[in-house]
Amino acid sequence: MNEDKDIQSCGCCSETSNENNRTSHHSEKTIKDLSNRMNRIEGQVRGIKGMIERHVYCDDILNQISSVQSALNGVSKLLLEKHMKSCVRERLDANDDEVIDEVLNTIFRMMR
Question: Where is this region: Disordered (predicted)?
Answer without folding.
Answer: 1-29
